[in-house]
Design a protein that fits this description.
The protein has 203 residues and is mainly α. Helices cover 67% and strands 6% of the residues. The radius of gyration is 19 Å and the shape is elongated.
Amino acid sequence: MYEKADAAIKAMNRANLKAFGKLKMAKFDELHLIREVGEVYAASARMAKKKYLEIFEDSFFWMLVELGYEEAEAARISGEEVPEWVEKLLEDVDPVTLYRFFPEMERKADRLTEALEASPDKNREIERALRWWTMQVTQYADNCVFQGRLQAMRRAGIERVRWQTQEDERVCEECDERNGVVYEIDNIPSTHWRCRCALLPVE
């Protein structure tokens, strides 16, 4: 279920590791620094948005198919509706991260710029910034899986859903208690950082 997200996360992590690594060799005069840092985050965000579209569409499409839609019809609906859902996902305040994607990206870029101007250990600041940015892009990738399935079920008129964990060693105590519990689709509990649970339709 999270395979496509996992592959996207790995690809983004590789690209971001390379991009942030180049910052370690950048010239640290003020104007150059602002531009370099801004470009790194902007390029990473563009890649992330593209990946989120792919993840959300995959999750949305296969949920529709699971619910009985023909693949051609599911593909048509996905193509029409998914871009708007991803825009909403990135524009709204996320209930897990408690921020909006792009304003938070800009805040992180500003924070790194300031840290590089002030800190004697530039590499440490870059590595710290990369960790925080990785957490952000990873969380939204996981969220695209969860939300893709959820919105497909809403689209199909499903009213109740069953919480399903991955039933592995990574399941937290909170989610383990929810496993198998049925919720009204408009009254489901919030996920958490790196939650990999899913919702199953109750017809």
